[in-house]
Amino acid sequence: MDSSGRSNCNGYCDKCYGLFSTAEALETLASPAGYWHHIGAEAKASADRGCPLCQKLVIKWPDRISRDTDQLVCWAARGRSRCQTNPTAAFPETKVSVPYIFDGLICYRYGPGEHSHQRWLKTFTLFADSDDNAASLLPIRPPIIDVGSEPALWRARQLFEACRDSHQLCPRARTPPLPTRAIDVGTIDSGDQVRLYIASPGELRDYVALSYCWGGPQPVLLTTKNLKGMTASIPVDSLPQTIKDAIKVTRGLGIRFLWIDALCIIQEGDDSDKLREIGRMGKLYKNATVTIFAASAKAVSDGFLQPRPALPSLALPFRCADGAVGTAQLTYGANHNFMHPLNTRGWTLQESLLSPRKLVYGEKELVWDCETQQKTGLQSSYFEPAWSFRHLPPEIFTPNGGVITASKAGDVWGGVLGEFTIRKLSFPEDRLAAVAGVITELSSVFQDECVFGLWRRNFIHQLAWYGRGLPCAVDENAILNCAPEWSWASRVFETGFLSFEPEDKEDWEVRDREVVLHRRLRRGHDIPAGPSNNWYVYLDFKEPEAERKPYYARFCFEQDGKDVFYFPLGYGAGNSNSEITMAVVREGREGTFRRVGIVNNVSGKSWFEHVEKQSIILV
């Protein structure tokens, strides 16, 4: 070290340079007390002198480090959350042992005084190159950032073949029926020509499906005019980059056929073909041998095989058990959120839910996802997915997989809608069409029928939908025609379901677009006046002064002279059975009612005790 207190080892101070450089330091990191670093003032001074790691701490958390100048900065080894084995590394010459291998470090502050406690600062990821001396104690690797390279394709093919041949929870190796049309990509040695292939009825072939964002008008579409020419030959150079990349990956997987909606469904000149093929898309993705998700591409022209950027990292010496010195690399910010452009589109949710095997080309790396091995990088890299792909019940992919209970079915559907309704649709009227494939597949394992987005076994519960996170929803003029007003599909907002015990699950029926319920109905003016602090009102429309907050029993609807009615859907469970969940309705035409909202957590069960049931027709 020089006279300034700065180390000559790549600019690190002694405390940082010594993190992993001795057996004693490694043992200290793995101990409950952790590795004592600098106090805040010393860390700031070290950063000013140029220590790269101290600079990371001070620049990242200037207020925490600079303000608490007398607090000690400590490091502790993170406990192996992603490692499959638990060896002990022994250092015989020092009689020191390290009880587990490292995949990260936790940095925290430890305040002075008798009642001091830890304050978490940041978790860093530790990794090493596969050929480094430190690799045995640092199992995390840098990701394969060149996702279009031969090593990446080879590893993707390995993951696919392992899933197909040995995963117990995934569809077993079988050859699926080929879609009506598919692109014949040839083999990995094929040239610059592909062609449209017309399948014979019942023909069985492995095929890859592509899920991607169109991003506007498509440069190449299948039409009645070019169908014959495309069956003869399609120059690869004439195709947009995302489709070129999908052809390369399909060939690399050793699969000959690729399904792409723009090129395999007649987009112009035959509306009946388009309707028929769109109706088959759910089954098509479910049957696909593998689905490629071009998640990072905003448009078909973008492509998805570009090398990904690596995270910046710091290199420190790492003392190995055999006396060799390796290199530990330290980074942070290595989380996926998977909110890629593709995951903002409504239609692509069912493609993800119904595809049993996924190759997801995200913005940071290529991820494999199946029923058995979820959100897995090509190798155990420093990226840690912070959000999982939603999966449907495994019974979907298992022949004779059994029937799911009504309670579980309600949870599954609530999860699907929670994700679907935050996504965008170019045409909002597609709210039901965009999940039709999911509904078809769930019908078999639910043993149930879906009526305008509500399942019969959970119908009363699912009438209690609301616009999640919104004080009031949309303008009354913004009702969609794809579903009746009592369905969540008639509105454009994120949807959730309230939790309660239905009063009567069976006392209702659906007639075309009307639902007839037999319930106790009270006019709003007849509800006892006075505040009820537990009221929460979820309105379907904007109303004067309407907010999500506690209300008086007579609330804002009365201001415009429109009568409002309530009827109970159900009650709280257990100790909350005095609470009530009510639908809010207004009179419509010819004795019908229109749903306008939901009221929850009202201690008003007694309000309906002496009210006779009547038929209520919701439209």
What is the strand and helix layout of this fold?
Layout: H1 14-17, H2 23-30, E1 35-39, H3 40-48, H4 52-60, H5 62-67, E2 72-77, E3 89-91, E4 96-98, E5 104-110, E6 118-127, H6 150-166, E7 181-184, E8 193-198, E9 207-211, H7 227-232, E10 234-235, H8 241-252, E11 257-259, H9 261-264, H10 271-279, H11 281-287, E12 290-293, E13 314-319, E14 325-331, E15 335-336, H12 347-354, E16 357-361, E17 366-370, E18 376-377, E19 384-385, H13 406-420, H14 436-446, E20 450-451, E21 454-455, H15 459-462, E22 465-467, E23 495-497, E24 501-502, E25 508-511, E26 514-520, E27 522-523, E28 531-532, E29 536-539, E30 551-552, E31 565-571, E32 580-587, E33 593-602, E34 613-618
Parallel strand pairs: 9-11, 9-12, 12-16, 15-19
Antiparallel strand pairs: 1-2, 2-5, 3-4, 5-6, 6-14, 7-8, 7-11, 8-10, 13-14, 16-17, 17-18, 20-21, 22-23, 24-31, 25-26, 26-34, 27-31, 28-30, 29-33, 31-32, 32-33
Helix pairs in contact: 3-4, 11-12
Characterization of the model:
The protein is of the alpha+beta class and 619 residues long. It has three domains: 14-127, no CATH class; 151-307 and 336-391, no CATH class; 456-618, no CATH class. Helices cover 21% and strands 24% of the residues. It is built from 15 helices and 34 strands. The strands form nine sheets. A nine-stranded mixed beta sheet has the order 10-8-7-11-9-12-16-17-18, sandwiched between helices. A six-stranded antiparallel beta sheet has the order 1-2-5-6-14-13. Strands 24, 27, 29, 31, 32 and 33 form a six-stranded antiparallel beta sheet that branches. Helix 3 packs across helix 4 and helix 11 packs parallel to helix 12. The longest helix is centred in the first third of the chain and has 17 residues, at 150-166. The termini are far apart.
